[in-house]
């Protein structure tokens, strides 16, 4: 099965958006990459993660405090992923390629693999957002039905009750199964991954070994099997919930579209940029503290249109994009509050489970 093709642009919309965003950076005399506040934030999060890890493993406090630190460690894992790895892997963290590579490698220390992630996220998800059979982010079968074109099972009628539990398993599933599956099959879903060089193979297995030492061997040695198992599950499950919800609240909603290619031509109805706008939504962009922690991923529309621009610029780009969308009468999807996006996601699951 070949990947779908997008229609050629018939409007000047994409040209206007790109031109006005380009004018913004030129007139403001700023780069598209991150800035000193981003580097400071990254440093705070990484150092905080190391300090919590060291205190938890080597100076283990009372069990109640230890469980809170496990939750904090899970949150920091997600925040480093949102703020450091995400921009780094997209090449927008810094204007220096080696800094971007270093930022992207942060995911390797946390158990996943940036090489595999780039294919899954940068190539597949950003190209074919919400296209069933291609976008691997829609694949939660058989536990969840996230798209109207997916097969429905009886269990799905209850999915709006148990979805949080399923999301909590993402981090464990990602680190201990899907990375290896991609490595062996050399595919992300139906899309082949780029041929791996020797250095990529060494990096894959080397960092997987480092992760096992840091998060399994050392904690088991210091704490014992039972305490490690409880702590590791609390840490991993909380990280999984945060990582999954942020992306689901941007794509799996009542308002977002789930278009399919034409069976005859294997082409999508919309041009790529409009496809991204129809399949993506923002949430709670008025909350600066939330934006700070989420690495601007609540500005998901801006991120999908300009993934190579650092998230620190999304609020400014959002104003430009809203104006152009209004001029071309193209709906700009957004939930002003986090709880509204969450409710829309739950209703989406409920409808798909009972349809």
UniProtKB/TrEMBL annotation:
Organism: Cyclobacterium xiamenense
Listed InterPro entries: FA_desaturase_dom, Fatty_acid_desaturase
Annotated TM spans: 38-58, 64-86, 98-117, 161-180, 201-222, 228-250
Superkingdom of origin organism: Bacteria
Keywords recorded for this protein, A-Z: Membrane, Transmembrane, Transmembrane helix
Cross-referenced PANTHER family: DELTA(5) FATTY ACID DESATURASE C-RELATED (PTHR19353:SF19), FATTY ACID DESATURASE 2 (PTHR19353)
An annotated GO BP: lipid biosynthetic process
An annotated GO cellular component: membrane
Molecular function, one GO term: oxidoreductase activity, acting on paired donors, with oxidation of a pair of donors resulting in the reduction of molecular oxygen to two molecules of water
Domain Fatty acid desaturase as annotated: residue spans: 61-334
Coiled-coil stretches noted in the UniProt entry, renumbered to this chain: none
Protein name stated in the entry: Linoleoyl-CoA desaturase
Keyword Transmembrane helix appears in the UniProt entry: yes
């Amino acid at each position: 099965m070949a990947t779908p093709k997008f229609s050629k642009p018939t409007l000047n919309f994409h040209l206007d958006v790109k031109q006005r965003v380009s004018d913004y950076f030129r007139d403001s005399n700023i780069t598209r990459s991150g800035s000193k506040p981003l580097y400071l934030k990254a440093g705070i999060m990484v150092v905080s993660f190391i300090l919590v890890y060291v205190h938890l493993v080597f100076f283990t406090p009372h069990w109640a405090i230890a469980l809170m630190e496990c939750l904090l460690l899970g949150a920091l894992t997600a925040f480093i992923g949102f703020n450091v790895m995400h921009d780094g892997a997209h090449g927008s963290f810094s204007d220096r390629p080696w800094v971007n590579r270093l930022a992207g490698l942060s995911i390797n220390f946390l158990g996943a693999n940036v090489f595999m992630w780039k294919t899954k996220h940068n190539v597949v998800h950003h190209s074919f957002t919400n296209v069933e059979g291609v976008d691997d982010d829609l694949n939660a079968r058989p536990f969840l039905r996230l798209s109207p074109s997916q097969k429905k099972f009886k269990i799905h009628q209850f999915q709006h009750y148990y979805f949080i539990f399923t999301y909590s398993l993402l981090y464990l599933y990602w680190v201990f199964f899907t990375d290896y599956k991609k490595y062996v099959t050399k595919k992300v879903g139906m899309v082949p991954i780029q041929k791996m060089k020797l250095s990529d193979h060494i990096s894959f297995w080397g960092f997987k070994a480092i992760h096992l030492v840091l998060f399994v061997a050392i904690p088991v040695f210091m704490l014992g099997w039972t305490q490690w198992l409880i702590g590791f599950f609390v840490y991993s499950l909380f990280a999984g919930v945060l990582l999954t919800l942020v992306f689901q609240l941007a794509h799996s909603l009542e308002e977002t579209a789930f278009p399919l290619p034409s069976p005859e031509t294997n082409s999508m109805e919309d041009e790529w940029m409009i496809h991204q706008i129809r399949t993506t939504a923002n949430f709670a962009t008025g909350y600066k503290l939330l934006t700070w922690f989420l690495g601007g991923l609540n500005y998901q529309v801006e991120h999908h249109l300009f993934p190579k621009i650092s998230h620190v610029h999304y609020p400014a780009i959002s104003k430009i994009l809203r104006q152009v969308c209004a001029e071309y009468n193209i709906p700009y999807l957004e939930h002003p509050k986090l709880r509204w996006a969450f409710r829309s996601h739950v209703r989406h699951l409920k409808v798909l489970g009972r349809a």
